[in-house]
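[09:14] KT: can someone run the structure on this one? pasting the chain below
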Amino acid sequence: MTAVDQELHALEARRRDAMLAGDVRALGELLAPELRYVHSTGTVDSRDSLLHRLATGAIVYRALELAPLTQTQCGDALIVAGEMRAQVLRGGELRKVFSSYLAVWRCQDRRWQLAACQGTALAAG
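[09:31] RB: done, structure tokens below
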């Protein structure tokens, strides 16, 4: 495993842990100001709206597994394709989510931040 692979796995683990804990401060450090986060439902969040929804409990992650499958470094960006399995409490209803995701991490001032994430729902498996 290369240093970039190790760093990516650490970033995805930090993102998962912050989302599970509802730790908007830790997550805020990982999210780029220009973040575009497209959920597998088609809902789109900015950095601020995603953090707000987590802070207010509009979205609560009860279980979350991120499995990066492939990554490609393109200059100062990492393009990650992976799968997500989650249990999400939204609107008082616990939902199981299984999706494929594409994430773009960008490095600026020697700091990696998530700049984009797009999820596509998959059949439960």
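[09:33] KT: thanks! Residues 21 and 61 are 8 Å apart (CA to CA).
[09:34] RB: yep, looked fine to me
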